[in-house]
Design a protein that fits this description.
- The complex is a heterodimer.
- By secondary structure, chain A is mainly beta.
- Chain A is 0% helix and 51% strand.
- In chain A, strand 7 and strand 8 form a beta hairpin.
- By secondary structure, chain B is mainly β.
- Helices cover 0% and strands 46% of the residues of chain B.
- Chain B contains no helices and nine strands.
- In chain B, the strands form two sheets. In chain B, strands 1, 3, 4, 7, 8 and 9 form a six-stranded mixed beta sheet that branches. In chain B, strands 2-6-5 form a three-stranded antiparallel beta sheet, with no helix packed on it.
- Classes of the chains: A mainly beta, B mainly beta.
- Chains A and B meet through strand 5 and strand 10 of A and strand 3, strand 7 and strand 8 of B.
């Protein structure tokens, strides 16, 4: 059973960099041709796609966040990470990592439990 | 930037049919999928590629698309279906966008 678990700092100061990690168990990031994604949800608001990557290494970002986002992969640890720079209060959200259903498209069926990140001084 | 629009809320009586729409310019050229999210929980994929249902999702959930409008239909709605539902559009050019969500109330 594939499981994803987010971890990282729950409190980040404005202008600093938010860093989160998604640990994957029950499956390998390096196989299957799946897309692995970061998605966030501000409190009481809608979901927002941040970016995703494929096993091949191709990475895609939400154009509205692209200048501040980096998604990286550590295949040796079977985990991937999110860095979001120059954060503001608007970046306060629950951050989810997810994997797509079958490697055929951008629809995510495996989700972590989410981790709340608050941006505040 | 590309957007898809959902009604903020939909109400339905138990046992009746609920329909939630998702509209967007050129949605006809993209794929739609739908997620159910209950309070404090992660989203659950209920429909993908416009009308396909993942394993384990009850048959009462169905999806369709006509032109630039996708629709999630829940037949025989149950109280446990009360949740927020999100539409998501995507295409093979890596364009991904979520709708604003629809709160489904079953009463």
């Amino acid at each position: 059973q594939l499981q994803l678990q987010e971890s990282g700092s729950g409190l980040v100061k404005p202008s600093q960099t938010l860093s989160l990690t998604c640990a994957v168990s029950g499956g390998s990031i390096s196989s299957g041709g799946y897309s692995w994604s970061w998605i966030r949800q501000p409190p009481g608001k809608a979901l927002e796609w941040i970016g995703y990557f494929y096993q091949s290494g191709n990475t895609y970002y939400n154009p509205s966040l692209k200048s501040r986002v980096t998604i990286s992969v550590d295949r040796s640890k079977n985990q991937f990470s999110l860095n979001l720079s120059s954060v503001t209060a608007a970046d306060t959200a629950v951050y989810y990592c997810a994997r797509d259903l079958d490697g055929s498209g951008s629809y995510w069926s495996y989700w972590g439990q989410g981790t709340l990140v608050t941006v505040s001084s | 930037s590309y957007e898809v629009t959902q009604p903020p809320s939909v109400s339905v009586s138990p046992g009746q049919t609920a329909s939630i729409t998702c509209s967007g310019d050129k949605l006809g050229d993209k794929y739609a999928c739908w997620y159910q999210q209950k309070p404090g929980q992660s989203p659950v994929l209920v429909i993908y590629q416009d009308k396909k249902r993942p394993s384990g999702i009850p048959e009462r959930f169905s999806g369709s698309k006509s032109g630039n409008t996708a629709t999630l239909t829940i037949r025989g709605t149950q109280v446990l279906d009360e949740a927020d539902y999100y539409c998501q559009a995507w295409d093979y050019s890596a364009h991904v966008v979520f709708g604003g969500g629809t709160k489904l109330t079953v009463l």
